[in-house]
Design goal:
The complex is a heterodimer. Chain A is mainly beta. Chain A is about 0% helix and about 55% strand. In chain A, strands 2, 4, 5, 9, 10 and 11 form a six-stranded mixed β-sheet that branches. A five-stranded antiparallel β-sheet of chain A has the order 1-3-8-7-6, with no helix packed on it. In chain A, strand 7 and strand 8 form a beta hairpin. By secondary structure, chain B is mainly beta. Helices cover about 0% and strands about 50% of the residues of chain B. In chain B, strand 4 and strand 5 form a beta hairpin. Classes of the chains: A mainly beta, B mainly beta. The interface between A and B is medium-sized, with 23 and 26 residues.
Chain lengths: ~110, ~120
Amino acid sequence: GESVGLHLPTLSVQEGDNSIINCAYSNSASDYFIWYKQESGKGPQFIIDIRSNMDKRQGQRVTVLLNKTVKHLSLQIAATQPGDSAVYFCAENTSGTYKYIFGTGTRLKVLA
Amino acid sequence: DSGVTQTPKHLITATGQRVTLRCSPRSGDLSVYWYQQSLDQGLQFLIQYYNGEERAKGNILERFSAQQFPDLHSELNLSSLELGDSALYFCASSSGLAYRTDTQYFGPGTRLTVL
């Protein structure tokens, strides 16, 4: 069946370093992807999205890379800060459908 | 602040009881989604409404039901509650228009504890 998964449940990085969070998806028909950040006790917060006609998109301190060949998505956070500590989810969607599939999440811990 | 509101923030009840969770979508959004998030689990899609009508159904139990009202707010009803229903319940809203990027924006969630 369809699935979106994250390889690492917990990622620890030093403050100031770059973070890379990975996500694999299995539905080759998926053409829209989102990264969400979920802080403790809060709802998921939209970070950045990318459509399948792109392989890279940049935001403020964040970059999403999409490799359709291997069905892999990554979120890069530059100069990681304590406020980046959270659980990060990827989600996939197929145009024309209304169903989003979410990964289980990766917990990012920023070490001072 | 995503613009999506959910009430109540916390709910503690007993097994066998029935509760109602409420969600108000962002201004202008026509679509509402409900998700369940159990401890250490990802988001499980329950159900989606668009402009008052059910559009998609996920892993929603028969004991659960939802509706979207003419003013577009939505309610999720959980009945015959079991201990395993304890979870965070999130509502998300989106424009619901499939011809453009239809990002979902999440509310702060309702934490349900069944004792």
